[in-house]
Amino acid sequence: MGLLDNKIALVTGAGGGIGRGIARRFAREGAALVLAEINAESGEQIAREARELGARAVFIQTDVCKKEQVLAAVQKAVDEFGGIDILVNNAFAPTPNILMEDKTDEMLEQTLNSTIWAAWWAMRAALPHMQRRGGGKVVNFYSIDVDVGAWLHADYNTAKAGILGLTRSAAAEWGRFNITVNAIAPTAMGATFHQLCQDNPGFAERSASLRPLGRCGDPEHDIAPAVLFLASDLSCYMTGEAIHVDGGLHMPGYNSRPAHVKVREY
Q1: Catalytic annotation on 254?
Q2: Which of 156, 237, 254, 266 does the annotation list as catalytic?
Q3: Which of 59, 89, 101, 242 could cross-link 43 (Cys pair, CB 3.0–4.6 Å)?
Q4: Looking at the predicted structure, is the pLDDT value of residue 126 above 90?
């Protein structure tokens, strides 16, 4: 028996990194999966992997910055499997890592669309279907970057802070429908991590050394189990929480000031 037997899950950004790890873990635990991903090649690939692991799984190409495509992903779960029990709002459209004064309105708009608006649209669309099934689970994505005020991520930090507010508001109001809403703040060896390793020799070793556990997280084996916990009945009495899944990095935090930025400028 899997922890998600007879459950229907929608995972956004499922084609790579943490999203792929979640999809694979959910497949092993018996969930029927709708895998929403903007990249068709990687989306089809993870759907094949999920089916090879024994799950019923379908891919739907989804740009979470577009409301109609988010709504279509939710409807796909209803049309293919009869409803939705679990919603994982993982997708995110990154913008360039530049100073706050250089960020544009368009960058902020893109970040808000792919985080707060995407989660808002998906949650509200999933609500009536979860109600009909007697409850549900929503897992949103927060970030340690908010806690440390990470440099070069002003738009991202702003949006992720909003995600925490959305998570707690929905947890407070939707508990009456037996819907739990929680968030995780993960750090893992996803696409961004591997790019940083390529661009900055020694980055992986430095990153691991900052964490009390002394290693960087694997999306499938370190992050996905925490999402599985929040998506399963194991967390049935838990809502409105934000959990750090980062090997302990949130305790010491980290200094993200770029080396080229002076301490004082006029």
Answers
A1: no
A2: 156
A3: 59
A4: yes
